[in-house]
Amino acid sequence: MNEESVESRRAKLLQRAVALLARREHSRLELARKLERRLDEGQDCRDIDAVLDDLQRRKLLSDERFAASVLRARSARYGEARLARDLQVRGVPADVARDALEAIRNSEIDRARVQWARRFKALPSSIEERARQTRFLEARGFSSAVIRQVLRGVADTEGGAA
User: Fold this and answer.
1) 97 with 137, same domain?
2) Which domain holds residue 135?
C-alpha cells in the first residue's frame, strides 16, 4: 500500500472519531471499540491507535474529561462503588478514575440520603424493611458505612463516607 492510502484510511477514521466525540465524550477504549466495528476494508487496529494517539495529542480525547462527564451525569443517583465500576467497565484507567472519584467523595452521604428520601418515607421499623432499604442503597453502590448512617437517621456526616 502506498503512503497516500494509509493517510486516506486514517483521515476517514479521524473523521468518524471526531463525529463520535462531537456527540459526547468517550473513553479511549470506548472510542476504539466503536471505530473497530466500523473498520473499512484495508483498515486495521494500528490505524485506530494512530488516530486515537493523534486525538489525545490534540486534547480532543481525554479519559479525565470523560470520567468527569460520567460522574457529572451519574453521581447524583449512585454511590462511589457503582461509579467506580462504571468507569472501569468503560475503560477509564484506575488512576484517572480514582482522581475523579476523589472529587465527589465528600458528598457520598448526602447523595445517599437524597436517594433514600426519594424512595422511602420513614426509617425502617422492622428487620425486613431495614433489609429492603439496605438492598436499595447497596444496589446503587453506596458503602455499608454510608448506608448505616442513612438508616440511623444521623443528621451530621461524622467523618464523611468512611
Assistant:
1) no
2) 106-152
